[in-house]
Amino acid sequence: MRCLKCGVDLGEEYTRCPLCGEKASDEPPVLSGFKTAEYPRYDEKAAFVKPKFKCSFPMKYLLRAVLVLCVLFGVLALFGFSKLWTIGVPVAFCSTSAVYFVFGCFEKGRLLHSGVSLLSTLLSSVLFLLVSLVAKCGVKGMVDCVFLCLAFFLLLWVIKPARMKEQMKALFVL
């Protein structure tokens, strides 16, 4: 017995495929001489239940939103709203790094995903610092932001060194 839809060999006791519910054909098994294992029962109701998506680390979208917001602040600064650049961008990056640090302190698991997010925030704030240097606007706030983000990253490394080391090994394939 064989299921043509799934392509699995079935025992002689099966009339329907226990995996997909399709009618079993009388074709001989591809692998002969092996005892077929018992398959789980096919549950038609469970087959059509839509799986619930749960993001394992929902905070990964925070930095993306902050980057879009800061670019918008930069565009608005071109039209005379320079306070958005000088105050809004550093505040956005500092608050993002603080959120990642707090989540990193309570994050469970072998790897520390908040460490990667803090590193990404640090690199993004350095990039925005370079833009501030070129624009000669809001440099002091961005320098403070870079140092705060670096401090959070190093502090998280001091608090959870083994997990941060494992995460960096996984990230950079060391």
List the helices and strands and how they pair.
Blueprint: E1 2-3, E2 8-9, H1 44-47, H2 60-78, H3 82-106, H4 113-135, H5 139-159, H6 161-172
Antiparallel strand pairs: 1-2
Helix pairs in contact: 2-3, 3-4, 3-5, 4-5, 5-6
Walkthrough of the structure:
There is one protein chain. With 174 residues, the chain is mainly α. Helices cover 60% and strands 2% of the residues. It has helices at residues 44-47, 60-78, 82-106, 113-135, 139-159, 161-172, and strands spanning 2-3, 8-9. It has a two-stranded antiparallel sheet. A hairpin with a 4-residue loop joins β1 and β2 (8-9). The relative contact order is 0.10.
Inertia-based shape: elongated
Write out the strand line-up for the largest beta sheet, numbering strands in chain order: 1-2
User: What is Rg?
Assistant: 27 Å
- Major sheet size, sense and barrel closure: 2 strands, antiparallel
pLDDT averaged over residues: 83
H/E order of the elements?
EEHHHHHH
* Quaternary state of the chains: single chain
The stretches of 5 or more residues where confidence is low (pLDDT under 50) are none
How many helical elements?
6
The helical percent reads 55-70%
Number of strands: 2
Measured between the Cα atoms of the first and last residue, the distance is 49 Å
Percent of residues in beta strands? under 5%
From the helix content, strand content and strand pairing, which structural class follows? mainly alpha
